[in-house]
Amino acid sequence: MGSMNIVLRGLFAGVVLVGFCGFYTPYWTILILTHRHIDHISFKPLEIKKLCDLCAYVLKNVQQYGVDPRAARLIPDSMTNRNARFFGEIQELALQSTGTLQITIIPQFDGASLILNNQQYRTQNGDSLYIDLLRFYLSAIKMQGKNNACFVEQDSYHLFDAEEPGSHTMILNNVPAGRYDSLCFFVGTDSLTNVSGAMGGDLDPTKGMYWAWNSGYINVKLEGRSKACQTRHNVFEFHIGGYMPPHQTVRRVVLPLKPLEIKGGEVTSVQLIVDLGKFFSQIRLAETNSLMIPSKQATQLVDWFTGTFMLN
Questions:
Q1: Which of 130, 146, 150, 278 is the most exposed place for a label (fewest CB within 10 A)?
Q2: Maximum CA pair distance of the chain?
Q3: How confident is the model over 35-63, as pLDDT tens digits?
Q4: How far is it, in rounded angstroms, from Cα 265 to Cα 28?
Q5: Inter-residue contact 218 to 209 (CB < 8 Å)
Q6: Verdict on whether the full-model pTM lies above 0.70
Q7: Helices 81-96 and 26-33: angle between axes, nearest 10 degrees
């Protein structure tokens, strides 16, 4: 009986490896075959196929899409209690193969910490200014690495507000363990979100980032003061938005990682710098100091704004 069990384990290993091809490594097969409940699994051909299909489904959802297997019923009712117990623990193993990524956004001006309202800064063009408000949306956060490693955050919308410390940190859960070499995201919100009307959470209109008159979101809002501005109270205001051609202002940003290793059950941290000095180096406030509507100028300003991001 012992030798037969060894043979069956070998057969099961072959089936599992084939079933996982393209998604999973032999590491998972070793975990499964050495699991303490493996002896209780029925090795009927149909049952083996069910087990392989289920295991592939669980691991695919956890590793590729970041789905917490405990949040859904992934075990068919037709399975025996012992097999359900086995795959319940396999789900836990899958969960242990994911970690958490903490992204801290750090606003700066030419490398110095950004302080609102009272700190004067000087641009490379010679303009002196104060920053009073900085808000922007980041969406569709994605991480990519070698060997097809990939993570895409679901329902990914984050509003950064320099005045709200709680918005400076983004937590990404259930990131598959592995090595990643790039971080991708969009500055702004996509067209579908804009035409869906006002929404909740960070997309709530009460956040001050929604144009009711234009039925769309403001992707970047930047306000301050400078004596170079021949405006009332010397203010400058850049409200950058627009989702319809030819004035779309959502932009994709891809930043290289060093690479970054995500470990199962652990929190990994990175710092995302946004340096406004780079933005203001592109403009002279005496000439460019107000933007409140989608326009060709808005597309140029958002291009300059996306150049302010880098990883520390």
A1: 146
A2: 90
A3: 444 444 444 455 555 556 556 655 555 55
A4: 16
A5: yes
A6: yes
A7: 140
